[in-house]
Amino acid sequence: MIRLKYLAVLLLPIANVALADPNFKAPFACGQTWTYSTYAGHNVNALDWVRSDNGVTNGAPVLTSAAGVVTARLFDPSAGNMVVVDHGGGWTTRYYHLSSFSVNQGQNVAQGQEIGKTGSTGYSSGPHIHYEQLYNNIAQTVRINGYSLAPYPYSYFQKVVTSDNGCGVVNPPPPPPTGQYWVDTFAHANGRSTPGGTITGTLYQGTHYVYCKVWGPKVQVGSNYNHWWLKTDLDVGPANQWVSAYMLSRWGNDEARDNNGAVIPNCP
User: Which of 133, 131, 136, 132 is nearest to 18 (CA)?
Assistant: First the structure.
């Protein structure tokens, strides 16, 4: 298995790029080894990554390749759950098919910070990270630690990279703003104007903040149910809407807790 440090003797750094990239690192955790490939009809400089070190691809943390600002966090029918990070100087990276989000739009992120979990949402044949590096919105040859990964193979397990992203660095989730509580929803949810009321938009699967809870109409699927409704701001739709706490069913029936297990307070 060829590790990145050995690829350095085979691949030459690309010179004469309009502006130097911010020394991108692999979009997965320190010490993990993933294989990459592309395919006909793909964006010419897009890579798909799967784990090749006997670890599990699905649900593995996706890390930002460099520090920046999250400029998009949305669901696209083709890309699925996707995150775009702006690194400044015209450089951005894109991460597609996430199973869930770990960041919010407008959030500052450090290099190596988790932005989501690997998945297979959107147009995808299986769990993987679809990854792109762009300069002025034009996809560039992917480089990791300054070295080009081109020419890209058209099947997995021909070329691999072992990540040094985040090695020795711990990036805990940021604390929520005052009066807000982080929660994880297991699927997309309808936002409503009142508890159980008219549908006004969508809250995407992933990590979100909520403000408080109220008791309302029961939502039940099989043996799982919840009467609590959470006040939040939707991904698509207006602010200060309501989503059923059933979407947090990891805590059990009629439970409404944040990601730390704390009970979400009642609304005033």
Answer: 136
